[in-house]
Design brief:
Blueprint (H helix, E strand, L loop, with lengths): L1 H13 L6 E3 L15 E8 L12 H12 L4 E5 L17 H18 L2 E4 L13 H15 L3 E3 L9 E5 L3 E5 L2 H5 L17 H13 L5 E5 L16 H5 L19 H7 L10 H14 L5 E5 L5 E5 L5 E5 L16 E5 L3 E8 L4 E8 L5 E9 L2
Helix pairs in contact: 2-3, 6-9
Amino acid sequence: MKNIFYFLFLLIICSGCSTSYYLRDGQEKKVDEAEDSKIDYRVLLIGDAGEPSLNLREPVLFEMEKRASLLPDKTINVFLGDNIYPFGLEAEEDLYYEITKNCLEEQINVMKNSGTKGIFIPGNHDWGDGGLDGWDRVQRMCKYIDLNNPLIEILPKDGCPGPVYRDFGNKVRLIFIDTQWWLHNDNKPDTSNCNCDPITKNEVINSIDTLIRTSGERHIILAGHHPLDTYGPHGGYFDWKAHIFPVQDFGKYLWIPLPVIGSIYPLARMAGISPQDMSNSHYKNYIERMEEVLSKYNKVIYAAGHEHSLQVIEGINNNIYLVSGFGTSTHDNNLSYGDKSILSLLNPGFMQLDFLSDKKIRLGVFVINDNGICEETFSTWLFH
């Protein structure tokens, strides 16, 4: 028995030291703000914002709306998936339809109240958390968004994998992919049941390659729900709480101690049992195929949610990976850091990308601090 506890102690230590804040040594914490007149486009990135808050208005969304209102004609809001927890949009006759619809409406109000454009990407929870009827649920969300407001759309549509792109002048190309399509094990669009184009994994990868290659002088943001790298639980990093209180992963108030046996859950996830974790073979395949493309290019920004944290990570071949998945204050998670980490933050918030007329890109990371105040806690010039 002593040996078992010793083994578990070592396992918890090796799982990764949890942190609420990490900044790479030598990395400047703040840079000067850009003048509004020099900003051609502003892209706000937020993920996993579809979980109901105890507040009358989710603070993260409220603060994001205020940022969007500053430059409404230049701002595009990108919602990086998991727009409705826990299983996507219910059918109208369902008891929980109003609750799930209101989760989505609260995010849609960011655009309605600020007069800005908004683009949603599906996430695994929007696909019924990978359930049998996931395709039906994501199509239902697509129809609701398409009918709601001409300034708002969901891309890709109807469960198709994408890529779909939107150009903003000759400055920015946003490329959207439905990464859950890649990982989904049940009914989904394929060559036998839909008109999606592209529709095979090879076609998807080749199309992404083409869209990057033909982008001209535009900056590229490749946006999908699942990150290519992360130092949170989806990347195999669990703190001691995950081993002692494993059921807390299913509810932040479920402080039920299960020492020893509780380690089975994080161990299984580290072994790849869940398609939502980077250790899973299907997820690994997605990363490998995407990085085959990204290794040909540089200065591409890959933006994702999924992990409930804010991370800036050094990507392959001088590309940048952004994880902006702490879109509601109800989330609870743990976070570590590694050699590729530039910034790791465990605060609710969102990210802002300013594309300037002189071709510079400024990244700002905004959080709701412990006092409930929104602050820009980190900023940097990308690819300088």
